[in-house]
């Protein structure tokens, strides 16, 4: 368990475990979001390289005929490699997007569950009055908002 969560007062061990699970899911979501972000720019970079290479080495020299351009594109090995890498990176980008969406859904569901069950998690009067301190710790250390269900 992470140190700031262990040091929380007015919270029982089960609630601390829920907060720890929420922190872990948030970390997994952040990693998935970064992977998706980098895959987008990687795909755009490879697409740009492919388009530049195709234009300067194939289209510019064979623009008189579509068939000549198509034939030259299929004969050029580097062109096919760049095209393949672009397609593969596009597929990877879609896989990372699906993973990111799945991790975000899991994270948001647990976060909303904690917000919904806050009356059950902090039953005692003293705990209920001091729950804002726990929410502040989660917001400050982990950027997790437990004040509202909305993102």
Description:
The protein is mainly alpha-helical. The chain has one domain. Helices cover 81% and strands 0% of the residues. The protein contains seven helices and no strands. The protein starts with a helix and ends in a 9-residue tail after the last helix. The model has no long low-confidence stretch (mean pLDDT 92).
Query: Quick check: average pLDDT?
Result: 92
Please report the total strand number as a whole number. Answer: 0
Number of helices: 7
Q: Structural class, please? A: mainly alpha
Helix proportion range: over 70%
Q: What's the end-to-end separation, in Å?
A: 25 Å
- Large-scale geometry: rod-shaped
* SSE string: HHHHHHH
Radius of gyration using CA atoms only: 25 Å
**Domain module count:** 1
> Can you summarize the main beta sheet?
none
Poorly predicted runs: none
Strand content: under 5%
Task: Give a quick precis of the structure.
The chain is mostly helical. The chain has seven helices and no strands.
Topology, please?
Blueprint: H1 3-6, H2 13-59, H3 66-75, H4 77-116, H5 118-121, H6 125-129, H7 131-142
Helix pairs in contact: 2-4
